[in-house]
Design a protein that fits this description.
This protein is mainly alpha-helical. It is built from 2 helices and 2 strands, in the order ββαα.
């Protein structure tokens, strides 16, 4: 199992990860370290453990907000899917009505053609 070195709050940690996940783990550690450094700048030196816990809670808060947004977007997607299905059903109904009107028009035109043929037959060669 591959290992990577990451740095959090000035301390180096060796961590194992799955093959091919090294860059991802380093990126996550960098992102978490930025959260720790940001908090350190905002609250000053409060102890490594407390600072790490606060950064972890802040990250989980961001995750919870992202999950809330995802749920809201999933609801919007469902609403849009239903609306799309309703529109598709309306289009299908309109197409059926249009096809019915075309059949009615064809029958009417055929009737008119028959009347015209009876009234004024075409000369035969």
């Amino acid at each position: 199992m591959p290992e990577v070195n990451v740095e959090i709050n000035g301390r180096k940690y060796r961590m194992a990860c799955e093959e091919g996940q090294q860059k991802h783990l380093i990126g996550l550690a960098d992102r978490f370290n930025k959260q720790v450094e940001s908090l350190k700048g905002a609250v000053g030196e409060i102890g490594d453990n407390r600072l790490t816990v606060m950064a972890g809670i802040a990250v989980v808060d961001e995750l919870a907000e992202a999950e809330r947004k995802i749920k809201a977007l999933e609801k919007e997607v469902l609403i849009l899917q239903r609306a799309g299905q309703e529109v598709a059903a309306e289009i299908e109904a309109l197409e059926e009505r249009f096809a019915g009107k075309l059949v009615e028009a064809a029958v009417a035109l055929d009737g008119i053609a028959n009347v015209l043929d009876e009234a004024a037959p075409l000369p035969h060669s």
